[in-house]
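=== RUN LOG ===
request id: a7f3
mode: sequence -> structure
chains: 1
length: 140
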Amino acid sequence: MSENNEWLWTLAETIPSESEQGQRIMKLLLSKLEEHQWPMADTFGVHLSTEEALVNAIKHGNGLDPDKNVQVELNLGAKRVSIRITDEGDGFDFDHLPDPTLEENLDVPSGRGVMLMRSYMTAVEYNECGNSVFMEKVLD
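=== RESULT ===
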């Protein structure tokens, strides 16, 4: 989305692959969403999607290896938030995830997080190898 937007808050940080670091980033983002009076329903979706992306990067992408890092870029505007999470893993084929809504996949955990991210965010895009996700939420 190419809307002109002066960011009210930005964060660019490289964190080790530790869940505590992901939780710290989430607390910062949530406090900024609240500070800038984002609606609760939209804050919920951004929270869920960002947490899912961070967990995927730390746990699946980097295998909880504290020697591997996750790059986090957050930009918050009055009506738009953009998030980029990049890990040092090999990535994954996001186009061939199992559909978690199909009966044969109801017990398979793969694909649920990506499905949630796509349902709550305005845009979700992966880089070619699948180790970096860009998400954006634009308020109506």
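=== NOTES ===
The chain has three helices and five strands.
The chain has a mean pLDDT of 89.
=== END ===
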